Each structure stands twice: as structure tokens, then as C-alpha cells.
Amino acid sequence: MTMQTSAPRSVETDALTRLDNMPWTRFHTLMLVALGVGWALDSFETNIIGSVFGVLKTQWHLSSQQGSLAVSIWVFGMLVGAIGFGYLADRYGRKKLFLATLLWYAFFSVATVFSWNYESFLFFRAMTALAVGGEYSAVTATMGEFIPRRHRGRTDSLILSGFPVGALISAAISYLVLNHLPGAISWRVGFGFGTTMALLFFWIRRVIPESPRWLLQQGRVAEAEAIVESIAASAAHSKLTQQERAQAAQRYPKTALVPVHPTFWRNLRDLFGAYRMRCGLASALNFSQAAVVYGVLSLMALVILPYMKVSAADMPIYYVYGNAAALAGGLTAAVLVEAWGRRASLFVSYSFTTLAIVVIYAMHTLPGMVIGYCLIQFGVTWAYISGYVVSSEILPTRIRATGLGISVAVGRLGAVIAPLMLTNVYAASGTPSAALIGLLLLALPGPIAAAAWWMMGRETRNVSLEEGSADDGFSTVAEGVPRIA
């Protein structure tokens, strides 16, 4: 006698449409701050090593190759963390992972402060990098799953703008500690600042509930609806009576869904099967922006500023200029992903970044190169924010964090390749111009992919995540509303 397994039971709820059409609440402001700070801390850790490595090099008598190893280990740790924690966020929930990664970060950042030699420093940095990679996946997947659709692009952009804020803080802290504290403790104080911020904002982040979209994907409908109701209670219209609220809720169409429990191999099969074009788009965009970010940073630190006779102690001030331009790029993205739409913002931003590399190539004075550097930072921040917004909207809930993790991992390959390739090109040629041509070539996958999405991709401005991702096991069943395949 054979047993037949029944198909998963479909359930219906209006939780998704309520989330998408909800007014802005205090909860959404809390989300913006709590997740944006995570990006700021990630950026702080990523950028501070470039500012303080000169002190570490003197203290532990390190070679340039050992400095490159520290960067490579950091990037490799982020790569592993992005894929591993990304899948875990799809499997076990967003909240568990964005809390776990923040605590992991805080623990190993504290350990870094107490590093007793170069080897222990490398180990603790690698462990910290795992958490930072996980933050990229978990936070980026979470950010859009709560936000009303008409605010989603702007809010996601502001959260992602935490990265240039963290870079600004890193440059400012580095400049202060390097110029006012003894070298043996200055770098420890710098890393300790990030730990302090992580512990402070863990308290804020812990009040963020689990993603209702993830809960619905697991079939936990009652929990998801209770969270949506609690968010709605903080809205201005929450003063309505229970009967009036029930009448208002009837305006929202219900969504039918079949719960799906992700597994790692199923996620990979979907990402390299039905969603291979979207995963490829996200990966190409991430490779391009990471190659530019890490490439131009290495060129400034190792090629351009030394070529222009700028001292190591004065270098952080130039990073402040660049990071201020990056913040302006983030704010520009927050406006234009909504005003122009996702596809236009994506294409123009990646094209602008490529042209900015041409500008710095044409400059031959320190002020001109700094202006070119600021234009690149402005453009690449606008670009990667547009890219993350698009990537998070075109991948379905069940594989969103895994797919974003894979794209981040591919981006880290660009982050590894760019510094090594560009410094070697400079060593062979003796001038920054040849290295800048190499940076231009590494940047090209971004505008090419953005152009392809402009022509063939779906515009996801002001639509639900389910509609934007096209196939999430969801289908709208209200009368007069199109079914989502």
C-alpha cells in the first residue's frame, strides 16, 4: 500500500496588502535607524583598516604583502559570511540573523582591540568579516519586507546610505586618534569605537519583529497578522474603533500563498535556474561597484596620494572629502529611485560612475584627482544603492537573502581582484593612468547589466515585492486584481 502526500495547503491573508498600503509609522522610522546603523558599522570596519594600517605596520614591522593579506582575509570572510548567513536568514528568519550578526560583530570586534600580534589580529578580523558579510545579506533582505511600497525605494536608499556615514565616521575617528594618541593604542581605540556603537544599537534592533513576509512563507499566518496589526497600531489612524478598523481592512485584497520551507540546495537550484538572469544581474552590479569601491580606495591610498606626495597622517582628510561625496550620492539615490524609477536610476548611476573614472584619468594635479575621486564616490554610492534596491525587489522572499548573499560574494571577488590588479599595473607602468584604465574595465559589467535591465527588466517602483519578484508562491485573489504568477 502506497501513501500519497498531499500538496501543501494554500492559505489566505490580507497581511501583505496591509503592509504595502500602510501609512508611515514610528515603527518604520525605528526600522530605518536600526538597520541603517548596521550598514554604518559595516562600513566603519571595512574602511578603518586602510587608515590605521600604517600604525600597525610600524608596530609589528609588517611588509606590504602582509598588509594585502589582511585585506584579502577580510574580503574572503565577508564572502563566506554573505553566502552562509544569507541562507540562514532564509531558513531560520531575518530577526535571528540580524541580531546574531550584530552580536558576532561586537564580540570579535572587542577581541580585535586586544590582539596581541599580527596572527591574532588576522584571525579576529576574519571572524568579524563573517558577521559583516552576514549583515549585507540579512539587512538588505529585511529592509524592504516591512516598508510600504510607496516609501520602499526611498527608505531602502536611506538605510543603505548608512555606509558612507560609517565611512565618514571612520575617517574622522582615524584622523583624530592618529594625530592625538600614541600609535600603540590609537588603532585599538579606533576599533573599540565600532564595538561601542554595535552594543548600543543592538538594544534598538532587538525590538524589530520577525519579517511578516518570512513568517507567511513558513505558513505562520497568525504570527504575521499579529505583527502587521501591531505596526498598524502605531499609525495615526490607529485611533479608530475596532469596528472602524475592521471595515477599513476590508478594502485590502487577500493574498493566497503556499508555504515553502527553503533548503540550501533548493535555493541554489532556483537561483541558478528560474532566477538565473536576476541573480546574474545582481551579481554583475555588485562585482562592478565593489571593484570600483575597493579599487579606487587602493589607488588613492597606495598610488595617487603617495604619487602626489601626501603624507600618511593627512590621508584620512581626503577620505572625508570622498565619503561626503558618497553620502550625497546616497541621498541622490533616495530621491531618484522614486522620482525616475529603479531602471533609470540604475542605468544613469552606473554610467555616471564609469564617466567619473574617465574624469580622474584626465586629471594631473592633486585637486583635480581629488575632484575625480569625489565624483567616483558620488556615482558609485548612487549606483550600488540603486543596485541593492533593485536586487532586493526582484528576488522572491524564499530565496531573497540567499540570492543577495551570492551577489555580495561575487562582489567580493571584484573587491579582491581590483586592488591586486591595479597595484600590479601601476608597478609595471609607473604611472596612475594605466591603473585607471584597468579600473574602467572592471567597472564595465555594471553599466552593461544596467542597460540590459533598462531594456528588458521590470520596473518595480510602487509595486508589491510579490509582483516585483513575479513568482513567490503568492497570487492575489481579490476580485479585479491581477493574479501574480
TrEMBL record:
One annotated GO molecular function: transmembrane transporter activity
Chief place of localization: membrane
Residue span(s) of domain Major facilitator superfamily (MFS) profile: 31-461
Domain of life: Bacteria
Gene Ontology cellular component annotations, sorted alphabetically: membrane
PROSITE patterns reported in the protein's UniProt record: MFS (PS50850), SUGAR_TRANSPORT_1 (PS00216)
Topology of the protein relative to the lipid bilayer: Multi-pass membrane protein
Keywords, ordered alphabetically: Membrane, Sugar transport, Transmembrane, Transmembrane helix, Transport
SUPFAM superfamilies per the UniProt record, alphabetical: MFS general substrate transporter
Matching InterPro entries: MFS_dom, MFS_sugar_transport-like, MFS_trans_sf, Sugar_transporter_CS
Family: Belongs to the major facilitator superfamily. Sugar transporter (TC 2.A.1.1) family.
Protein name (Swiss-Prot/TrEMBL): Sugar transport protein
Source species: Paraburkholderia eburnea
